[in-house]
Write a structure and sequence with these properties.
This protein is of the alpha/beta class. The protein contains nine helices and seven strands, in the order ααβαβαββααβαβααβ. It has a seven-stranded mixed β-sheet with strand order 3-2-1-4-5-7-6, with helices on both faces. α3 links the parallel β1 and β2.
């Protein structure tokens, strides 16, 4: 069985909440237009390695997975990470228990930066004040400048999150689709674009997400800002580093 298919077999066992067909669709969506073959990838907030190992299975040469488990992330991710590594038999994925702030890449330059539901967690107190506090914006400028300094020319940045500009963020009730979201800890894609453009990222592309079970018809009919306003406000932002 080729590595990519072994990955989906492992994913079905390790993350059964998402059907394999839906996961395939979602991964194609996240990495649309991003060439992973031979790439050096930095996965920030990697969890148990779901996306790090996919990048390896898709041909990435080296993947650094940042997951500061001891700093309050989900317990047991290291155990799961090593279990998946054993299932796949790959050694191109490196788990580092560090935050982006702590990480030192040495001389390595990355071709892909990936942040799945983690861009807002780089500095949560700053995230909550980005729309109103210049000091908070400076905090993120410095973080994004560090990313830019670690990127090869033409490096792709892929970030998925939810926007605070959402119907349920303005209502005194929880979103039935995502009842645990703390809307104050999120920002709309335009805020991230502004800050990333200041440090050299360009060509922003925003795509609004829908339930993966709806597949392509769902994306066509509901993958827009208006529909996102009434659902969970999920989006995927892709940008390119230009030196």
């Amino acid at each position: 069985m080729e590595l990519r298919e072994r990955y989906f077999s492992a994913a079905e066992a390790e993350w059964p909440v998402r059907r394999t067909g839906n996961l395939r669709f979602y991964l194609d969506y996240l990495f649309e237009g991003v060439d992973l073959h031979g790439a050096r990838v930095l996965d920030i907030g990697a969890g148990g390695g779901r996306y790090s190992f996919y990048a390896a299975a898709a041909g990435a040469a080296h993947v650094v997975a940042l997951e500061p488990e001891e700093a309050g992330s989900d317990a047991g991710v290291t155990t799961q990470f090593e279990r998946v590594r054993g299932r796949l038999g790959v050694d191109s994925v490196e788990l580092r228990h560090e935050t982006l702030q702590q990480f030192d890449p040495g001389d390595e330059l990355f071709d892909v930066f990936f942040m799945h539901a983690s861009i807002n967690h780089l500095d949560e107190p700053a995230t909550m004040r980005l729309h109103s506090d210049e000091a908070a914006r400076q905090t993120y400028r410095e973080l994004f400048a560090k990313l830019a300094g670690m990127g090869a020319d033409g490096a792709k940045l892929v970030a998925s999150d939810v926007s605070r500009h959402n119907l349920f963020a303005r209502l005194p009730v929880r979103n039935p689709l995502q009842p645990t979201i703390e809307w104050e800890k999120h920002q709309p894609p335009e805020t991230w674009i502004e800050l990333l453009e200041e440090v050299g990222f360009a060509e922003p592309r925003v795509r609004w997400s829908t339930a993966n079970s709806l597949r392509r018809p769902g994306r066509v009919l509901l993958g827009n800002r208006m529909a996102a306003w009434f659902t969970e406000g999920a989006f995927c932002l892709t940008m390119t580093l230009r030196r």
